[in-house]
Each structure stands twice: as structure tokens, then as C-alpha cells.
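Now for our target.
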Amino acid sequence: MDTNFSDDFETKGKFSIKKTSTEYQGPLTKQEGQALLSIEKEKLRNLQEKLYADGSKSLLVILQAMDAAGKDSLIEHVFGGVNPQGCNVTSFKTPSSKEYSHDFLWRQYLALPQKGMIGIFNRSHYESVLVCKVHPEYNLSEKTWNSVKEFDNKFWENRYESIRNFEKHLSQNGTTVIKIFLNVSKKEQKQRLLDRINEPEKNWKFSSADLPERALFDQYMTAYETAINETSKEYAPWYVLPADNKWFARVAAIQIIIDTLEKMDLKYPQPSEKDVKALEESKKILEKE
């Protein structure tokens, strides 16, 4: 059976969130999916080492989702076997006063992966066209605008354009960008939030602030649909993964990341003729000890 799902979830053409499954898991059982994930983690580790050795390119993985969709656990299970020296995770919270004193992309620039590295954004600049679109008053903290009346269609068009330009700039300068949206249903989100309340070891994950945001679920879905349609480009594609089954989302995500790295044409550095001779001399010296 076909167990590679990396091409199944890239958004191409007009994307409709209502027509997208949150439950799909392919022909796999959960046990088969977990076994496949272990195999894929070894592939990812080898490719990450090759990326690090190549040193001329980087990969940026952007994760976006509603609360309780599984971003944190996906990072843990997908990247758990990768060499920590070659991977950075940045979780973006509410901007600080210093960050609000710059443009909305500034803090993302500071967190970009250097060449040879994988960078993971747990939330990202997309919050500016997601949470800030559902709550436009948040934009006033940037101190550039005086009223929410200024956040008209032109304002949002400019935001999407800025994001497209930012990601295109990255792609033209050695950073491959992929964006993953974990598409969890409102029903499944409810169960996961209840689990956080009912299971003592998960209480720390629950915040009463999650409920007011959950009440705006449909507005968030509209914001996601628009953002994805406006910014899914060949140089920075969006992948919308069914996330009601966490184990399947992890399998699909790691396969997308693996296939992306394989397409980057990574190479181990080749020693020069002078280096080869030096290696041979060093070998002789060591063998004589």
C-alpha cells in the first residue's frame, strides 16, 4: 500500500477549509502509523546531518493551528531524533513591547535558521493575519494606527503582500520555506480541552482564555482559509494536515519535511586534492602509532 502522504495535502488552486477532512488517516492503523514514524525519523536524522554538512541552505518549517491541535507534541515526536545542534525551535507568544516597537516581521527575522540548520516556528508572522484579524484591535499595539477603522481591506492586502515578499526573499536567499496547518475539528478540540481539565497531569496545559477563543472558532477558520489562499506559493507552499488523529498528522508532517529536504539537492562537502593527500598522510601517521 502507498504510505507516503507528502503530496496529498499541499494546497493548490482555491482552498476551501469546509471541504477539507480533519479525520483522514489513509490506509494505516495507528500502530502501523507509529511504526512508520520511527522509520521516517531515521531518514530525517540522516537528511538533517546532510543539511548541516552541506552548510549552504536552511529549512524553515512554520506550524500553525488552533489551540490543542497538537503543534507541541508534533514537534516532539517528529524532531525528537534530530541532532539538537542542527535544529532550533522558536515559539512565538504575544509580542513584547520591544517587538511591538518594530514592524510585525522583525522578530521572525531574528529567529530565522542559519545555513545548515532546520528552524521550526511554533506560530509565526501569520498570527498577524489570524488572531489579529479576529481581534483587529490588537494591531493598535504597533503604535502606527489610531483606530480599528483603519484596518480595511487594503490594510489586510498589504499584510498578505508583506508576508509573500518576506517568504519569497527567504526562498531566493537559501532558505526553503514550508508551512503546515494542523486542521483539527471543533469537536476534537473540545475533547482535548476536556482532557486537559479531567487529567491532572494535563491541567497545566489548560487556560481559561482558551474558551473565549474557541467561541470564535468559525471566524478563525475563515481567517485561516483566506491566509492560506493568499500566501500559498510554489516558493512557500501550505500543507493542510488532518489533525484529529495526532499520530497521522505526525507521519504526514515528517514525510513532507523529508521530501522537501530531498528536493534541496544537499551534498556532503568534497575534499580537495590537497585535503585528500592530507587525509592519507594523517592515516599513515595514526596507523604507525
User: Anything to note?
Assistant: Strands lie at 58-65, 87-91, 118-122, 175-183, 238-242. The first helix runs from residue 30 to 54. The CA atoms of residues 270 and 276 lie 9 Å apart. The mean pLDDT is 95.
